[in-house]
Each structure stands twice: as structure tokens, then as C-alpha cells.
């Protein structure tokens, strides 16, 4: 059987397992595995793009087949995820531009193989690119099958994405945070400036976790009613999301509380971002209510600590900002160095 012939039962099996998934990131990983296995290619990448076609994340699936001692083939699969500052190789970048213009696959013969870049669509919008190299490019049958797989993926992705979004604000919801954070934590935590730079990373920055909470929101509800309260929540959430990069992650954490994960080179830089968010809200005149303010607590994501601990640090910092009069942005390390906040260690009496 030629390598260009795709076997249907394994493909259907792969599609079946893809649609059994309940999380968008796992679905993306599963798509890469499916394409890799179906097309017989060992390296498949997914470059996620925002509405301005900037690359905001990358997943790479690498498959290798090795013979074990008994001479039996063993397949190992590795997924690499880059959440920010993705470096796209020049040939991929050139083909991605073609795909952006045509919404059709684009190919390039390089070094005896064909680089293929496919459009990844979501609700008619180009939301990413799939890239891989294959000896002779794609046959017509392979093109048709890949097109079908990508359609199933896109439909299922939008269903899943809806379930991970907060209905009122459209931000990621608490469920998405709870299911995603354990998986992304090792990557975020090990990405600090202190780490040796890797192939795709410059490691010129740290990741930071911020908790943002609307001040005296109960008064807004009590004075103007829940409908106005909801409108304020929606407007604040849009402004908050607007102040972060597209590749940052912003969640509705609780009622009037948001959680953001961003990268910045220093404490001063992250505080600049937080000040920008705070001033944007403070400077806006909200319908009926007028002025609304928010308080912010931010903590550096440190490899030594769990997500739970860093959230607790940011939360404690936020609480201090509230205690000091609200409408301010504080950073955990800075408060600590000033002696304004006891250090927070899980299992120690200081936390509780
Ligand atoms: N309208 C509306 N209100 C909500 C929603 N979720 C939570 N809230 C309200 O948010 C308010 C939060 O109140 P508190 O936790 O006392 O905090 P606060 O009044 O903002 O005071 P500080 O945080 O201390 O500044 C409560 O009145 C909740 O009912 C929502 O989805 N819509």
C-alpha cells in the first residue's frame, strides 16, 4: 500500500477520540496527533493567530518511531507548547502570508521536501495555520481528507470554546482556568528569566498572575440594580481585556473579580501595565454610575510554587490594596520587601 493511501478505520478512530475531548487545548493537541498519524508526518505545528494575524501561540507535535530491543516499532509523541513570543521560521511565515490572503493551502519545495501550510478556520475567521513538511506534498485524496478533519475540528472547537467562556463577559470562565492551569503551570513557571534560553524562547521576561476586582461593586448593584451591574461588569471586562495583549490570558474568576496571566520583564513593567488598566477604568464614565474603580494584586509566577500558592499571593496583595483605600495596583514582592505583607508559605501559620 502506498504511503499516500489513508486508512479509514484509524482515521475514524482518531476523529472519534478528538470529539470525546472536553477542553480546547487538548483538542488542538489531538488535531496535531490526528494529522501526524493520518499523513505519516513526524512534525506538525499549529500557529495560533489573533484577528490582526499576529502569532499568539504555538503547539508542535513531534512523533518518532524507534525500534526496541526485540525489533518492534515503538511510537513516541511529544507536544511542545509556546504561549508567547513565538518565533516563526521564515519559510512558514511566507506561506502563512499566502494563506492569510487566499484562505487556501500554500506549499513550497524546500530541501527535497514540501512545506505545507494549511488555514485553520473558526466561524469563517482564519484563527491559525497548520504547518508540516512532507516528501511529496499532499495528494488530492489527502487534501480532501485533511479538509474534512479540519472542518470537524473547527465545528467541535467552537462548541467547546463556548463552554469555556463566561456567558456575560465572553472571557474564559473559572472552569477553563481550573482545567487549564495545572497543564500550563510547569511551562509558565519554568519560563522565568533565570532559566537558560531554549530554541524558541528568549526568556527575557517572567510570567505574572494578576487578580483584578471592581471596588464597592455591591453598592453599584444595591443603588442601580443588577441589570446596570451586569452592564458595568461587561464594560469593565472588555476594557480589562483590551489593556492586555491578545496572547495574555484573561479569565472571569468570580462575580466581579478577574484573573490575568501576562509576561513582563520586570516588576516595574508589570506594574506599568496594571496602572494602565486601573487608569483606563478610573478614567471612563460609566452609564448611570459614573466613576468605577478597580484594585489589583499581582504576583510573579515562580517555579517553586504551585498555581494555588501564586493565586493566594496575588489575592493577598489585592486584599492589601483594598485595605489601603482601593483603586490601586500592588505587587506582592514589592509589598514584601517593604515589610507591608508577611511572606506567604503554604503549610505555614502565616497563611492562615
Ligand atoms: N450585577 C451582578 N452582580 C454580581 C455578579 N456577580 C457578583 N455580583 C455582585 O458583586 C458584589 C460583590 O460584593 P462584595 O464581595 O461585597 O465586594 P464589593 O462590594 O465589590 O467590595 P470590595 O471588593 O471590598 O471593594 C455582590 O453584591 C454580588 O452580588 C453578576 O454577575 N452580576
Automatic annotation (TrEMBL):
Gene3D superfamilies, sorted: 3.30.70.270
Taxonomic superkingdom: Bacteria
Top enzyme class: transferase
Keywords: Nucleotidyltransferase, Transferase
NCBIfam families assigned to the protein according to its UniProt record, in alphabetical order: GGDEF
Signal peptide interval: none
UniProt-recorded Gene Ontology molecular function terms: diguanylate cyclase activity
Naturally occurring in which organism (per UniProt): Hydrogenophaga atypica
Lineage: Bacteria, Pseudomonadati, Pseudomonadota, Betaproteobacteria, Burkholderiales
Every GGDEF domain range: 205-334
Catalytic reactions of this protein: 2 GTP = 3',3'-c-di-GMP + 2 diphosphate
Family matches, as InterPro entries: Diguanylate_Cyclase, GGDEF_dom, Nucleotide_cyclase, Rev_trsase/Diguanyl_cyclase
EC number: 2.7.7.65
Protein name: diguanylate cyclase
